[in-house]
Design goal:
Largest sheet: 5 strands, mixed
Number of domains: 2
Distance between the termini: 14 Å
Structural class: alpha/beta
Low-confidence stretches: none
Mean pLDDT: 97
Strand content: 15-25%
Number of strands: 20
Amino acid sequence: MSNHPPRPTWIEVSRGALRNNVARLRAVLGPHTPLMAVVKANAYGHGAVATARTLQEAGAARFGVATLGEAIELRAGGIERPILVLGYTPARQTAEAVQQAVTLTVIDAPTAIEMNRLAGECPARLTVHVKVNTGMNRLGVLPAEAPALLATLRDLPALAVEGIFTHFATSDERDLTYAGLQFERFTALLAVLAAAGLRPPIAHAANSAALLTMAQTHLDLVRSGIALYGLDPDPEQCPLPPGFRPALSWKAVVTQVATLPPGEPISYGREFVVERVTRTAVIPVGYADGFPRRPYTWGSVLIRGQMAPILGRVCMDQTVVDITDIEAASGPIAQGEEVVLIGRQGAACLTAEAISVRVGTNNYDVVSRILARVPRMMVD
């Protein structure tokens, strides 16, 4: 991509911040504990391929994604290190996974048996990891049923069982009692499997929060997502240590400025009517970019380091903001002036965490929902 984005709104992703965050995570780990970079959902909105390239250069040993399609996108973008699909993959996609050297997750025997049949027709084996449900109660085989599944997998010659993993439900909370219970269930299972000669060579459990707060969970591999991007696993209960840096900024430019007399409505439905002479600016961002319309909006954006409140409904592609007070303090705003939706502008900063409070969600959702039509630009 050139230095000029193809749209007047764009995402900037800092390579320096990504490298910094990897280094800080590596400093917490033992020298021989590999780091899996989780880059699902377009690398949490940061842009999967370019972000993964930077993380690969920074030392990520493996990558985690949600779907086979995400893995194939990384392969096409030049990512050569092992990739694990963390979610469910239909057996019918087995040949494609083998062809792309992508590792799949197994959660039940029938799917594994069908994968084995299809992989038997391929020139290489299919590498798999087994997902164990220790209390998230979402995806995975129960610990009591896992030994039987591993025994079945041992007898499937076209499958190479490389790993076994679980996922914590509450490792980003101050009270780690339940996370500890999940880990106890997992380690007890690993002991049973080891005694039976069924333990896969790689066991992993730690996500970003557990990596930082539960060193005993590091095992053979750790998986980090949100912390790689410099965002808190939970801003109140599990903030990042000092030194991590947010990698993503979302910017735009002012496209039009207008003056409205009192009594004029703004946007669809005439839900907002100005009560004073109001100076407005249009920004070329809307809900089709992941800028929410309902039930809560961003609230405001930054222009000249000051908050410009959103007026009226957010539209599909455009939003109107109030610049009256900003102009009163610093003079007229012109078409093309910078707008910051996430990030720093002068001394002011609008963080994903602050926005998550405004819209009633979390920082993961804020950045991951930014749609792909907003161009991503890697910056230093």
